[in-house]
């Protein structure tokens, strides 16, 4: 009976020593939090291991995060997964839906961006844009021939209408000379013709008679304008003039109309269009309504995919610029020792208890063998 009691005693003592030793060793990882001094000298093992090595731990954690956890390859693989892409697309779509559902007008959005007079800004920007576009568009065109500037379809249509224009001119001339006003004009022209010939002209006019001469000339003029050859002649003359005109550089057209006049006309046109539309008072949702489905189902997925590819290509530079190792080191160093202890224990409390229990078990086993050895000796 005494032998059993002795063995049990040794086992209990060994278990207590092993458990307490391991528990004390675990606590010495964190405790004491600060150095302890006695008689002006710091006691050994103070502070605890983790508080004492906190800076080194912070630096190693930063390196571990960058070199083994948040690696460029790992981030790139994550960005290329369908799960991440679908989630990002869904979040962006929800954000856009929420933003549009607020019913904010264009004016309100611009004012929130710090633009106090959006109307004036839009007019100024529109005019600047128009002047820039006009100059960029006209610069290469000024030295070109007019025929090279106009589209071929336009030129063909104009050339096809030259015959109609010739007929129109002949018809208008025919109507004029058939009228009483035209007859009087012919008579006046005949008078001017004879009066310019002196006495011989007057005698010839008296002999022929002005009234009879008008009646003879007018039908011939009418016959002239009715003749198909006359109309063909007009068409050929117009066609020749058109070819001459289209061979001039386009700068001639700009100079003829006036550069500043063109700009002023375009400015007035675009400003009136902006004011008439009054899109500043319209909501963003209303403005993009025709493109809503396309934005949600096409543009946003493409934008997210393009953003993912860009981040994937730039991930090394981004990590280097962010200096993640320094961020982790700084954050860990800024933790209080109590918080650091709480974080580690919240993760490993169960394992630390198992280490304590294992120490008690090993201590009990050692105590049992020590009791056997003691009895044997």
Automatic annotation (TrEMBL):
Tell me what this protein is called: DUF445 family protein
Q: Which InterPro entries match?
A: DUF445 (IPR007383), UCP032178 (IPR016991)
Segments forming a coiled coil: none
What's an example GO cellular component term for this entry? endomembrane system
Keywords per UniProt: Membrane, Transmembrane, Transmembrane helix
Where this protein primarily resides, as one coarse class? membrane
Q: Where are the transmembrane segments?
A: 6-30, 355-376
Q: Which domain of life is it from?
A: Bacteria
**Per the similarity annotation, which family is this?**
Belongs to the UPF0754 family.
Provide an example Pfam family for this protein. DUF445
